[in-house]
Design brief:
One of its GO terms (cellular component) is postsynaptic membrane. Keywords: Cell membrane, Endoplasmic reticulum, ER-Golgi transport, Golgi apparatus, Membrane, Postsynaptic cell membrane, Synapse, Transport. Component of the multisubunit TRAPP (transport protein particle) complex, which includes at least TRAPPC2, TRAPPC2L, TRAPPC3, TRAPPC3L, TRAPPC4, TRAPPC5, TRAPPC8, TRAPPC9, TRAPPC10, TRAPPC11 and TRAPPC12. Interacts with SDC2. This is Trafficking protein particle complex subunit. With 219 residues, this protein is an alpha+beta fold. The protein has two domains: 130 residues, Beta-Lactamase (2-Layer Sandwich), CATH 3.30.450.70; 73 residues, Pdz3 Domain, CATH 2.30.42.40. The chain is built from four helices and eleven strands; from the N terminus they run E-E-E-E-E-E-E-H-E-H-E-E-E-H-H. The strands form three sheets. The protein has a five-stranded antiparallel β-sheet. A four-stranded antiparallel β-sheet has the order 3-8-6-7, with no helix packed on it. Strand 9 and strand 10 form a beta hairpin.
Length: 219
């Protein structure tokens, strides 16, 4: 079982806290000869596999590193265009590491804002007045769980679909937020949470949830 990440979104839709707790490694590194037997295309300022799957490399995986050096979006570590570099026979054989693209800070901010809007749409579409909005979204690889407080703060947890006790965990995170963020005299409401005690207690709560499931009385 695993808890992947935690997001805290303020009532205006701004991301005020994010923690990547566990990210499954799915990187694949292979050495290729010319010509490259994968079709690569630029997409959202990175180079991804558009066609051809082999040895754990999947369509949608991004080029993460070339010859052991991390790439910077569409450019190699020394500033060369990735597609031009891989199109030159003189650069082969070449070692390429593929994997799932890591979200940037700006992308996380954008996704939090999008979820806030989706949450509002879900509330408005409800046939009943006073809908609580989206509480869970399920896919084959993860579940998104959301708990919104009376003041509009949203706590979002992404976890393995088999992970138990997430409802209790969400309320535990709310307690930690109340104890270590709201009671911090240096914290301003609706602003990013930068508190070491909040970080420490949140990480501890995630570890307990992964190992023991639901929180018991007095936890």
């Amino acid at each position: 079982m695993a808890i992947f990440s935690v997001y805290v979104v303020n009532k205006a839709g701004g991301l005020i806290y994010q923690l990547d707790h566990y990210a499954p490694r799915a990187d694949t590194e292979k050495t290729f000869s010319f010509p490259l037997d994968l079709v690569l295309r630029p997409h959202d300022e990175r180079v991804v596999v558009a066609f051809g799957q082999r040895d754990g490399i999947r369509v949608g995986h991004a080029v993460l590193a070339i010859n052991g050096a991390d790439v910077n979006g569409r450019f190699t570590a020394d500033g060369k265009d990735v597609l031009e570099f891989l199109g030159n026979p003189a650069n082969y054989p070449v070692s390429i590491r593929f994997g799932r693209h890591r979200l940037s800070s700006n992308e996380k901010l954008m996704l939090a804002s999008m979820f806030h809007s989706l949450f509002a749409i879900g509330s408005q579409l409800s046939p009943e007045v006073g809908s609580s909005g989206i509480e869970m979204l399920e896919t084959d690889t993860f579940k998104l769980h959301c708990f919104q407080t009376l003041t509009g703060i949203k706590f979002v947890v992404l976890a393995d679909p088999r992970q138990a006790g997430i409802d209790s965990l969400l309320r535990k995170i709310y307690e930690i937020y109340s104890d270590f963020a709201l009671k911090n005299p240096f914290y301003s409401l609706e602003m990013p949470i930068r508190c070491e005690l909040f970080d420490q207690n949140l990480k501890l709560a995630l570890e307990v949830a992964e190992k023991a499931g639901p929180f018991g009385p007095g936890s």
